[in-house]
Amino acid sequence: MRPLRVAGFLDHSTVNGAGFRSVLFLSGCNHSCPGCHNLELQDFNYGEDATISKILSKILKNKLLIDGVTISGGEPFEQSTGLLPLLMALKKLELSIWVYTGYLYEDLTQDPSKSTLLPFIDVLVDGPYLEAYADANLKYRGSSNQRFLKLTQGKIETLLVY
Ligand code: SF4
Questions:
Q1: Which residue has the CA at smallest separation from atom 1 of ligand 1?
Q2: Is the whole-model pTM more than 0.85?
């Protein structure tokens, strides 16, 4: 199984999605959003390699405390092949899965190398960070163009509001 290039991990957070969540930050992003607050995470070499089993064991230590797991970055969909087995394992554990992406859902569905992740995601926070829509008071997102999409089997069920 391919390791993931990991920029960071939080055992629990309340600002990266609803509830109490473990957060995995993956390295590498090509979106180049002006004003990006995670410049070092744009580098695909930033951080270190971690196996799926190592990441899972960290998450399992928190399982009784957390509501779910958030995958952020960077751009998680650039590591789709490595990420797929992790999402499958988290789904089996019945943990809610949030994924942040700079892509739009509609574009992800057109790319077979990325759309494979969608059926395992409960909430997709999509869209690039746009300075024109940035607001420090927003909950769980940096700019108001970013959407909270509740997915069921990879399809949009509803648009969540926070
Ligand atoms: S998608 Fe996120 S990490 Fe990538 S450039 Fe935009 S703000 Fe930065």
A1: 102
A2: yes
